[in-house]
Amino acid sequence: MASAAIFSSLRRRRSPSLEAFLAPVHLSEVALVQALGIVANELMSFSHHPHPFQKRNSRSLIRKIDVFVILFDYLRDSGRSLPSSAILCLKELYLLIYRSKILLDYCSQSSRLWLLLQNSSISGHFHDLNQEISTILDVLPLKELGLTQDIREQIELLSKQARRDKLFIDQHDDELRRRLYSFLDEFEQGKIPDTAELQSFFMDRLGIRDAKICRAEIEFLEEQICNNEGDVEPTVSLLNGFVALTRYCRFLLFGFEDEEVGSGSQKKTRGGLVYQEIGDTFLTIPKDFCCPISLDLMRDPVIISTGQTYDRASISQWMEEGHCSCPKTGQMLSHTRLVPNRALRNLISQWCTAHGIRFDPPENLDPPAEVVAMPTSTKAAIVANRATAERLIQQLSNGSQGAKTVAARELRLLAKTGKENRTFIAEVGAIPLLRQLLSSPDPVAQENSVTAILNLSIHDKNKSRIMEEEGCLKSIVEVLRFGHTTEARENAAATLFSLSAVHDYKKRITSEEGAVESLAGLLREGSLRGKKDAVTALFNLSTHSENCERMIESGAVTALVGALGTEGVAEEAAGALALIVRQPIGAEAVENEELAVSGLIGMMRRGTPKGKENAVAALLELCRSGGTATTQRVARAPALASLLQSLLFTGTKRARRKAASLARVCQRCEAAALPMEGYGVGYAFVGNSASDRSSNFAGDVSVPVSISVPVL
């Protein structure tokens, strides 16, 4: 039946009713005929709302159903008893009419561009329904229904017509579809289509005559990208090309002033890519796909001598800075050779393809075939997006306040996906102009500009552009401190997290007035999303040894201790504390926090596996750096011994190692205290002996590799 094809291919906005699949089994004859009349009359309402495309197929289907309405009215009024074969046919007819209604509704609700792209497929669905009508009429027992001669002749004529009808694909619609592809081909060749031709096509032939309709077209296509499961044409890459083309036309043909900019991110969200904001739609990258150093998705995973995998760029920089140990395990490197992890790279590539994320392996590699064979529309989308970005930059520079707000929002959306987009947006001068907009009194303009900078910062080269732009870091911190909206402040924190992935910038960010204080405040009082942004930024800043004193002065340590009891951020808070207490002043500051030890022990009891790992690591470093009094305080904490014993058997490999080390530290402290105090806690463990403190600064801390920079 046609239903399977319709619902697998049409990608509707909302789920169809069960009535589309289930025949009315328990209805009486009278109720069945009445139900048929109702659904048929609902379908007839589409005759008053002509579709922009599929006109002939729609009219033909409606005329056929109109004949059935006459039949249903007669059966309802006659009151005759129906034979079982007729009832079976009427139930099948009910399903057919319901699916016909869904198809017509789909055509009326879909975007014009989508109907063009699906012209042949949708025509096929109309033809399938026509064939089903023919089949049902062939078996419908007309002689047993007692029809009048006039009605019977109409039904027989309908049967003959349905039998004769062939698949019809409107050549005018198909010509428009080919013209749409030709515009994409021009972009593919690096050319910009003629403005007059684009205007004639979009405005005159498609009827897209204002920015609002054009925006709806873009959102609908993006919706199809979200829903695409790889079994529908055109492919996702082609759809991205058409989105880029339509976005270019939106600003070329309709300018900037007629867009609703006042509502900003408060507009009612839809299912498209445009409105996938990070508060609700975090796409969690599998932790094994993230580099433990940069916390970002690995593009070129390599294996070092200890067997750990890192992104080539990150581990190479680590080694160039003079480190001779593994950042994750602390083991000394036997050599510095980097072995490509091709199996993992293939898995990352497949995951990116499945989630519509562009995967850009380094140019000097021989990537697998599925990575090399980029879709033909990729260049077209890049060229179209570049042309759009240039127009947006012009408005950002010379436009009115409203135009600047629209331009910032569109640059934010363009920078959401694709390394190329982020690269050329920065290259054409967006960052200085966005920096100026950070101080805008317009909340929407400020929010979009800081989020655009956040999205641009994901590309490593743009991090340096942002940090080198005079006053940009200060302006980002100002938004974090005094931003007009909660989302602007949270996105400023996320921007600092992104920038702090570069080691050299951690000290600069910490030295910026109010930066760490505001992050600490957001961690204490922000929303859950804000807390996550703040704690990840503070974690990154904690990995720089020279930032410890500043973290203490700013109140970050207090905020991190308080976050130990907050689900969702406790794991990273414990990791940051484990880094801070490596220094004596850090250990003293944490020890002075009344809830620090109890909070870390609470994490050992209730936290995630990595949270427990970070908590026991923090307690171990606290004892090592804090001295005898601190160790005694930790050792005598209630339930610590049993929790350590539990970790020795059930914890991660590193948690077991840290637990064994902490147990020995407590055992030595207890032994030293016994002659003087006469009692002990009893840390008699048979544990892992590989517990010497021989790792690098960040080596003993579980880096939260599942966290990635959000794209807004």
UniProtKB/TrEMBL annotation:
Alphabetical list of SMART domains matching this protein = ARM (SM00185), Ubox (SM00504)
Q: Which Gene3D superfamilies match?
A: Leucine-rich Repeat Variant (1.25.10.10), Zinc/RING finger domain, C3HC4 (zinc finger) (3.30.40.10)
Q: Name one GO biological process term.
A: protein ubiquitination
**Top enzyme category:** transferase
E.C. number(s) listed in UniProt: 2.3.2.27
The pathway entry for this protein reads as: Protein modification; protein ubiquitination
Entry superkingdom: Eukaryota
Q: Name one GO cellular component term.
A: nucleus
U-box domain sequence ranges: 284-358
Protein keywords: Repeat, Transferase, Ubl conjugation pathway
Q: Name one GO molecular function term.
A: ubiquitin protein ligase activity
- Swiss-Prot/TrEMBL catalytic activity: S-ubiquitinyl-[E2 ubiquitin-conjugating enzyme]-L-cysteine + [acceptor protein]-L-lysine = [E2 ubiquitin-conjugating enzyme]-L-cysteine + N(6)-ubiquitinyl-[acceptor protein]-L-lysine
Tell me the InterPro entries matching this sequence.
ARM-like, ARM-type_fold, ARM_PUB, Armadillo, PUB12-19-like_N, RING-Ubox_PUB, Ubox_domain, Znf_RING/FYVE/PHD
Q: Which segments carry the ARM repeats?
A: 429-471, 514-556
This chain belongs to the protein called RING-type E3 ubiquitin transferase
- From which source organism is this entry? Nelumbo nucifera
State the encoding gene. LOC104591272
